[in-house]
Amino acid sequence: MKNISVIGAGTMGRGIAYAAALGGFNVVLNDVSEENVKKAQQYIEEIMRGSAKKGFLQTEEVERALTQISYSTDFNEAVKESDLVVEAVFELMEVKIEMFKKLDDACPTHTILATNTSTMSPTEIAAQTKRSDQCIAMHFFNPVHKMKLIEVIRGLDTSDETVAKVMEVGKKMGKECVEVNEFPGFVTSRMNCLIGNEAMNMLVEGVASAADIDKAMKLGLNHPMGPLELADLVGLDSRLRNMEYLYQTLGEKYRPSPILVKYVKAGRLGKKSGKGFYDYTN
């Protein structure tokens, strides 16, 4: 496993490319948008060099990693030599299925296809390809350069060889991997969505302010971020899609909180829009 392609240069895609390059892999970061690619390159360079200045990384390590990342808007060119492709596109099943069909046609026969998803079924996605044994889910966490975990989710037909190779890739990226059998929401999203949704319901009920709910979870339960802060960081539209999927597959306890639905309709999507449960405009 030498060559990794990452499809989608958004928040997760650029973070995955960062981790893969530091892990010693040759990386191609691909996106349909030239603007997204340029923003991703700027972000990766700033974060890497900033980490070197703070002493978290060696300068030589950073310069070596930066030479191992290339940026592309040409899809076929980006995947033609890939040993592993990590798809990090929009969190909608139809979008991911369409992407996996394209990857199946464009990639070499040995290429492993991984979806970075927090809730979606790798079995359903893999079924649209001719290589379901080489398909898997790798759930990275935001921000990727800081978060240590990758959930590796085995689909129905995923081979032991595919799992072993992906676990080794994760290890080389400096991550801890846990193997999860497919079930909606896996381990972390299933728990995290419940916590976040209950925090939103408490806010609606007037139990406490958003800041005090988050402070209670951080200081009382030792969470690194409060559930409402985290939802703002993830994006409230993304959280709503995850909640709707879990509600459809796991039932009533995952019904999205009314305030989440209202905020998304109002365009209050969290940090990326400037407002969510908190105001980021200043």
Automatic annotation (TrEMBL):
Keyword Oxidoreductase among record annotations: yes
PANTHER family (UniProt xref): 3-HYDROXYACYL-COA DEHYDROGENASE FAMILY PROTEIN (PTHR48075), 3-HYDROXYBUTYRYL-COA DEHYDROGENASE (PTHR48075:SF5)
EC number: 1.1.1.35
Residue spans crossing the bilayer: none
Residues in 3-hydroxyacyl-CoA dehydrogenase C-terminal domain copies: 185-280
A Pfam family matched in the record: 3HCDH_N
Keywords assigned by UniProt, alphabetized: Oxidoreductase
Family in the record: Belongs to the 3-hydroxyacyl-CoA dehydrogenase family.
Pathway in which this enzyme or protein is active: Lipid metabolism; butanoate metabolism
Gene Ontology molecular function terms on file: (3S)-3-hydroxyacyl-CoA dehydrogenase (NAD+) activity
Domain of life: Bacteria
Species assigned in the record: Sporosarcina soli
Residue intervals of the 3-hydroxyacyl-CoA dehydrogenase NAD binding domain: 4-182
Protein name as it appears in the record: 3-hydroxyacyl-CoA dehydrogenase family protein
InterPro entries per UniProt: 3-OHacyl-CoA_DH, 3-OHacyl-CoA_DH_NAD-bd, 3HC_DH_C, 6-PGluconate_DH-like_C_sf, 6PGD_dom2, NAD(P)-bd_dom_sf
